[in-house]
Amino acid sequence: MSRQTTRNVSITKSGVIARELMDKMIEEQEKNKTNENIFESVDEQDNKLLDDLLSKYVNETSKRIIPEFFVKWYPVIDVSSDLKNICTYYTTKINDFTFDGSVAFNEVILPDKYCHPYFDFDHIESNDQYASAIIQLDSLVSEFGQYSIGGYSNDPKICATHNLKYITDAAKKISIHVVFYEKRILQQDMMEIVKKVGNQNTRRFVYDINEFVDDSVYKLKYVSKSSRQIFRYILSSKNYRGKESIYIAGQLCKPNDQPFNQIIQCIQDDSSTGDVISNWNNVIHKLPSLKEREKEKTNAKRLVDVDNGVAEVAGDGKIITKTHIKNIKIDDVDFDDNLIWFASIFQQVKLKIGTMMNFIGQQGCGKSFAFETIYELLGIFALKNVDELSKIFGKFNALAATAILINFNEIQDATDSFNLQHKMKSAITQASGIVERKGVDSVESEIWSNFTCTCNDVNANPAEKVHFICAYI
Q1: Do 88 and 198 belong to one domain?
Q2: Is residue 236 classed as helix, strand or coil in its secondary structure?
Q3: pLDDT per residue over 410-446, tens digit each?
Q4: Sorted alphabetically, which InterPro entries does this protein's record hold (predicted)?
Q5: pLDDT range class, residue 239, cuts 50, 70, 90
Q6: Residue 304 maps to a domain
Q7: What 3-state DSSP class applies to 454?
Q8: Assigned domain for 106 exists
Q9: In whole angstroms, how large is the CA radius of gyration of the chain?
Q10: pLDDT tens for residues 313-360?
Q11: Angle at 231 between CA 230 and CA 236, to 5 degrees
């Protein structure tokens, strides 16, 4: 039955109730016409019948109208990949399902078009963390509609505060399931909302989702014929094939909530899509990337420098530190970046700039003059004429740990020694590494050295271009 049809049935039913009670009102009025206090009696009867009507109507509409379809489920979590063995249960019977522990109930959510939005919180450890989850859930109601929440805890105080099921030996401090039962959402949108980025150690949500949401229960994408997401129903214990049941059945937290409201599956009917969430990004926002955060932090620091008078905003909008940088142009070529690069070596000795400065030009054009001047200032902390990559990136690389600035001059082995290119890229960007000396055990050490190169050959360094700043002279 479609949602629209169900809604019409509800309205018709209410109309029948109203007509029935109105007929009773008229009948009572006829009986009381002979009474001396007819007006008073009629008023009392009318008020009583209207109260009955209101009470009956409210009770009739307060319950959720359950859409009719078959819910796919399985009694154990480790369901066979053979989807032919999946059980089904009619939606209108869910509220009467007996969750006695011996028969567990796990939804089998197949890759489809829609589902109800749902969240699984498994790592909450305190009242404050629980409160943060509720605050965000409440912030979604304007777009997602009302939600059903249920769960358990092994902490009696937390259970009393939040109406959770108390399970003494539960492994998790708090476990709750939340389903926004009034609205549907595209399954692909649900997966997008809980998406994470980063490696194993630094994985984070792309959107501002509560940090305690478990992102492992959203396998809603079709990969093979056996693709499905198994999700334990919150009122059910956890059963595995051939093992004893784990009695962690929770309870519904809100008064007058219905078990069916915890069902994630929904009708896939497109005849009426008014209940489909399309503007979820009004309440769930994308977080800036780590690179964007770092850029914002750097920009904020630079603006503070401007306010403090140690930097100025140039005509092109760049923020320039007054103490060591001026706009220098030769033949309309802007050398600000080059000057900033060299200034960083003096002002931030431990900073790995992350790029290598290349000066490329014909023989005798004076490309090494700037380097020779700077190397005079650095003295023993500079190597200005290294002609072989192996001296720095070979097996014994102690030289790299002794210098702040190293210049490769007319290197001839950059192309031939291809294996050294990978070490070069690493040395340009990494602030630490393994240092080896002859006759001494290798140790990990900070390496502050930055690199420059003077050469005639345009292609002297075939490594990735992103690591180089080139100035052609």
Answers
A1: yes
A2: coil
A3: 775 545 545 666 677 777 777 777 877 777 777 877 8
A4: NrS-1_pol-like_helicase
A5: confident
A6: no
A7: strand
A8: yes
A9: 36
A10: 777 777 666 544 344 444 555 566 777 777 877 777 777 777 787 777
A11: 125
Q: Which SS3 state, helix, strand or coil, does residue 450 take?
A: strand
- Per the structure, the complete domain to which residue 423 belongs is given by 324-472
Do residues 333 and 258 both lie within one domain? Answer: no
Q: What is the largest CA-CA distance in the chain?
A: 127
User: Token pair for residue 84?
Assistant: 């032919």
Give the length of the chain.
473
Please name the residues in contact with 444: beta carbons below 8 A apart, sequence gap of 6 or more.
432, 433, 434, 435
Both 329 and 205 in one domain: the answer is no
The structural domain count of the chain equals 3
Which pLDDT value is given to residue 276?
97
In whole angstroms, what is the distance from residue 23 CA to residue 29 CA? 10
pLDDT band at 63 (very low <50, low <70, confident <90, very high): low
Q: Which of 264, 266, 271, 275 is nearest to 68 (CA)?
A: 266
Is the alpha carbon torsion for 327, 329, 332, 335 positive or negative? negative
CB 76 within 8 A of CB 240: yes
CB 186 within 8 A of CB 192: no
- Whether 26 and 130 share a structural domain: no
Residues 375 and 447 occupy one common structural domain: yes
User: 462 in helix, strand or coil?
Assistant: coil
| 205 within some domain | yes
Please give the full DSSP string across 66-111, using - where no structure is assigned.
Answer: ----EEEEESSSS--S-GGG-EEEEGGGGGG----SSS--EEEE-S
Closest alpha carbon to 150 in 159, 140, 138, 139: 159
